[in-house]
Amino acid sequence: MPPKVFNLLGILLFLGGLIARDCLGEQTGDSSAPDPSSETIRTLQESRNSPHPRLFLKTEEVDALRKGIFSDSRMTAEYQQLISRAHKMLKEAPVARKLDGKRLLRVSRTCLDRVSILSMAWRLEHDPAFLARAKEEMLAAASFTDWNPSHFLDVAEMTAALAIGYDWLYPDLDDTTRETIRKAIAAKGLEAGLSRPGGKEPKWFRGRTNWNQVCNGGLVLGALAVSEDYPDLSSKIISRGLESVPFALKSYAPAGVYPEGPTYWGYGTTYSLLMIAALQSALGTDFGLPDQPGFLESAEFMLHVTGSSERYFGFSDCREPSSIQPALFWISSRKKDPSLLWNMERKLDAKPLEPVIFLPFLLLWSNPGMKAAMPNSLDWSGGGPNPVAFLRSDWGKDALYAAVKGGSPSLNHAHMDAGSFVFDALGTRWVHDLGGQDYNGLEQRHIDLWNMRQDSARWTIFRLSNHSHNNLVINDALQNVAGKASLTTSGLGTTNPAATVDCSEIFAGQAAKVVRTLSLPGRSSFLIEDHVDEVSATGSIRWQIMTDAAVSTEGSNAVLSKEGKTVVLNCESPIGATWQVGDASAPRQPYDAPNPGMHQVFLEIPVRKGDSATFKITLRPNAVKPETINTLKAP
Asked: How far, in Å, are 15, 19, 185, 315 from residue 12 at the CA level?
């Protein structure tokens, strides 16, 4: 067979396979299979010849979206927020190239928020003011000297912003504006993504962090938007993205735990889904990306990482306040599992509706009329680099909820929080994780924030060290950065679920063995049992939690109270240990952030070299009535 005929046949067979797979609804893929080459991508683009708009929402789909919005009260509220925010944006000055420390990221995100909202508002409302303001915003960003490639997240998000606006508004933009915007996407986005000193790959290319997902997601959106004018550049960017992003998607394996925590799940996963959804709409295939092990299952992680107080277990550099995540709506629809939206429905029913990040995609990915179902399981656990377990008494807002983690301080964005936990009951959070601290402020004080070594200045930051977390501290020492805490569970789904974290490596050089077990006996109280074997030096062991409740103490009991509710901490072991309370609100170092209203409740017992110790602590909600608190001694 002549070579040209053989090549043409191969291309036709490849395209036929894609079409057949899409017609059957099978969008599966093998992460070990070779990624499509840039030549194949270009052939696929040319064969489809998709007109603008081609990303996410095509012209013929707008009426159906509008109909869905007004048939569903929640979507109507989302739409009203979109239009309200679009009107406010009309009065705001366009973005300007102003760095915040080493970052342009805040500017890129502002541009993305404005362009996506204004563009969607134009497509739904056809108010010329929205079109004009979106055009003004994009031209302002296009005029920047560059999009700050030294911190490439900034480039990726700005590329995404202009790609969405260019594609969605393409039929209504004049030729000069189109040319200016697409040249900016190509030169300041796509070419910046390929150009590296010495031809080296960027660090994020094979990374397993949110950087990989955001950078690839933004670039692929840009490539798809300008593909007909830059076919070689576009196909190369898409091919490289398909080669690169599976490295990040492997971090979800095996069960869906996102190692960087729930806040970064929202960031990284959303950009992966933007890439996936854009590929589906423009090229007709997702190349099997959603089928990477653990990726879709990560929606279960997000379901359970949110406590009954509607706060995240905000481990690592995350924060506790939860938010509406459009990505969960995409996954829920894909899996046909409305239980994944249990927490989202509570937030969508709140009045007023909280501001939503990626708001246009909440509208696009919502399923009109879908009602969240109560999840089947109360407990959930997942392994991987940062293993976690979640236990709860029921799915009501007053439920008992406990979350605990293993892992290592050496992971990206990690804290010295192996063995740390949070606790909810009676509709509120009683034991808190303080979360991360603003990066820019620390960097501008020349703190070596991203150095994860044992002696790094990173671990002098209160929120990041073990001194601020709900764990044990032996002889005032730091956790071992090189160590890793494993996690096992027992009795999940029974009346006595439990999770055990072996922190022995984390305390290497401080004790022979350290094991923590958390359980919900009868699903009516919360029990923490710690066993420390053979401490390595004379000194003390400190058992501690963070709380924003008022605290009263009497011997082995401490009463936490707020909003007319109470939780009692009872120390059964060590016998004779007494509770102490410290103020955790004020910064310990000039560079530490304040923690308003926070107290540290702790036990501290003396030990000699070779001693072992056991802690057995129970938290019982409403174990005493508020009026009896006055009988206990204040600290």
From this structure: 5, 10, 31, 49
